[in-house]
Amino acid sequence: MTEGSVLVLRACLALLAMPIYLLSFLGIWEPFCKKVFFPFFLEKLGEVHGKKTKKQKQELFRNLPDFTSSSGELRLLEIGTGCGTNFQFFPPGCKVTCTDVNPHFQQSLSRSMSKNQHLQYERFLVASGEDLHQVPSGSVDAVVCTLVLCSVHNVSGTLKEVLRVLRPGGAFYFLEHVAAERSSWKYFWQQICYPTWKLVFDGCCLNREIWKNLEEANFSELKLQHLSVALPWTPIEPHIVGYAVK
């Protein structure tokens, strides 16, 4: 597992993906990816990933009602809502604000909303995780983020925004794929796939040790566990799941 072998195998993978690299060079791939390919891919991945992680998500979101505010409302902000695959796990009557940096999820998001009418949808904001200025400080009881921190530009900056918008005692829920153990074959393949994967899948990074960012953030309490999600032939099996309290 030498650096040289990683570089050689990266080059081989890049050759296989040469048409996409060429489209990227011509400035065609990124707009096509954001508007057509990635929304389609994410909806399909969401279906597969959702089946594989259904039990984990049920357990993860089970205590969401515990963070209902003194007014009796549960105000929830989801960063990177995408296709709305988490809606089914949110408690009835929950007031949801959806955000995503990509505005091209509208069709699949509308389908998810119509299937989950037990929720109250407040608004949809086109916003990155690092810049939620449209959301007032201390205005939400819970923030949810799944399969998103892999592609934000700044994980620590996103967590700072999470802490800002949460009220004191509010909670941040996460389920993210992360880097494998550095001595493992999974990490070796993550290193090989990294550049091409990031290009093809709209900035998704395979080797982020997101648990370290969470440990360094200013949360008063952190419940986190590592798990492996059965996604054979993909480099995104290692995951972390849990929640953190402001």
**How many individual domains?**
1
Oligomer: single chain
Global geometry? globular
Mean pLDDT level: 94
Class computed from helices, strands and strand pairing: alpha/beta
> What top-tier CATH class fits best?
Alpha Beta
**CATH 4th-level superfamily:** Vaccinia Virus protein VP39
State Rg.
18 Å
Percent of residues in helical segments?
25-40%
Strand content: 15-25%
Number of strands: 7
What does this structure look like?
- The chain has 246 residues and is of the alpha/beta class.
- The protein has a single domain, classed as Vaccinia Virus protein VP39 (Rossmann fold, 3-Layer(aba) Sandwich), CATH 3.40.50.
- Helices cover 39% and strands 22% of the residues.
- The protein contains eight helices and seven strands; from the N terminus they run ααααββαββαβααββ.
- The protein has helices spanning 3-16, 18-25, 29-52, 54-60, 106-115, 155-165, 185-200, 210-216, and strands spanning 75-79, 95-100, 120-126, 140-146, 166-177, 221-228, 238-245.
- Strands 3-2-1-4-5-7-6 form a seven-stranded mixed sheet, sandwiched between helices.
- The longest helix has 24 residues, at 29-52.
- The radius of gyration is 18 Å and the shape is globular.
